[in-house]
Amino acid sequence: MEVLLDTASAVVATSLAAVAVGAAAYLSSRKRKHEDVQERSLPVARAVAGEEPKAKRARVTKQQVVPSEASIVDLLKQRAQNTPDKVVYVFLDDNGKESVVLTFADVDKAARRVAATLQQDAGLKKGDRVMLCYPPGLDFAMGFWGCLYAGAIGIPVYPPYPGTLAKDLPKFNRMVEDSGARVILTNRAYYMATQLATAKSYFSGSVSWPKDIQWFSTDAISNAMADRYEPTDCTFDDLAFFQYSSGSTSEPKAVMISHGNIHAQLKTWASIREDETMISWLPSYHDMGLVGFILVPIATGARCISMSPIAFIKDPSLWMRTASKYKGTHVCAPNFGYALAARKTTKAQVAKLDLSHLKQCICAAEPIRVESLEAFTEKFLPAGFNPKTFNCGYGLAEVTLVVTGQDPHKPQEPTVLAVKKSALEQKKSAIVAPKGHNSTDICTLVGCGIPMPTFRVIVVDPETHVQLRDNQVGEVWIQGPSVAKGYWKREEYTKEQFQATLKDAKQKRQSIGSSDKSHFLRSGDVSILDKSHWLRSGDMGFIRQGQTFITGRLKDLIIVRGRNICPQDVEQSVELAHEEVRPGCVAAFSIETSNQEEALVVVAELR
């Protein structure tokens, strides 16, 4: 019996285990030349300055006109009507072969099918919550769109691994309890594996799935259900989905994202064209994968070629091989993705690639290291990669996705800034290190670009709430139309984080971003918080010449003998100190000594 259960669980066990590896790395962290200073571009980029790509860019066609005030649901319905046979989603298997191909009409029909099931079989009404619990694949997207069509609030979650339910289920159950979800959507393979694993754990007295909750396998729903769908009217103020934060597992916090937030965020991606192709291996339950590669293709009409995070972790070369094969124009990954692709793709594989079609290589979601960008550039330069396509950005779930980045119409190499580490730690100031400065006192930072249109970014002293000047390090505060409504059932915490105010309301120092005039939104865009209210990001950084630089997390800051030490800086220094230190396997943290002083501890794994 035990062997039978283990075999059945293996239907998705391997996939989910590999996703855990990628997700752990993915979520482990929180993220003009002057003649005598060390502010530079990528060293290897100079070799291609002024060179033309080895192939012409993809032909640009006229962009389909869509209503500027249309919701994302309206956009999908319109595209399904106007261009029903145009392919929007393609999912590849672990060998890079197409396993699922969906047109706009396919997605619309699947959304109607799922929505009708939620409305009639599950008895859900507008605003009810639904857990989206899927292994990698496009079934997740169909479930998510079904929730939007039904007016339900989808909740993307990491799917508990059937083999370790005792470890994974407690957090999942807390999210179900916190959200009040009544339904779990999944697919047949995952449902079968979880039920068999649950039966096995039942006899051992382990933790169980939530009781009194309905399960639906969306890939088993009849096509006839699509005709029973009853359209639901949703306004921009209505909630679209929850994004649970990666904070404490004992107190999960759900960021409430509205339809208006989605609408405003998608406007920042308007430069993407219908004839362009996006390539992704990002998990759909994370905001970068969900917004960037499920919602954006519908909003822009672009095609998205996706693969499982498992496929990328098993064979990192598949990412750029896919970009070459499909003439990909847009890719996106956290820093570790670029580093892994550079390290694991062979020169022989690079020789067969053509990456000249790439227009944007977005890097965000974790601290960006210049070494990773340099390694990626050096490895893929022979394939026609242009380092000006790097778009280093900054974002967080509380603003739906992105806050800052490079202007896609003005591509440029990433800004790399070498500052005095001692000044960062002791003076909380970003002082550029002059040439010849002691290398042990240098911290290298990569700029995260400028605020997106209608966003405003300032840096504030986290204790006094006084706005700081350029090059002074403090907490990053944000205003913008895609800033979320707050945290679900966390009124006090919402007030603290989403409604922060400057100490001197009459401060005239200009924030970086949109002008006051452009900050006012047209009727129908989205209802925004009071202009005096700011979102506290919890991230530390500074602004220099209009560009945002992130130095670390406020809560991660380690204070030793008056020095403000950023653990990411220590981890990076240790990782680069010796080749035997395994990349991504260094942790720096603090402990309290017997003298009640804070001490720094570093743990590193060797190869």
Automatic annotation (TrEMBL):
Cross-referenced Pfam families: AMP-binding
Coiled coil regions in record: none
Any one GO biological process: lipid biosynthetic process
InterPro entries in alphabetical order: AMP-bd_C_sf, AMP-binding_CS, AMP-dep_synth/lig_dom, ANL_N_sf, FAAL/FAAC
GO molecular function, one term: ligase activity
AMP-dependent synthetase/ligase domain boundaries: 77-488
Alphabetically ordered keywords of this record: Ligase
Name of the protein in question: Fatty-acid-CoA ligase
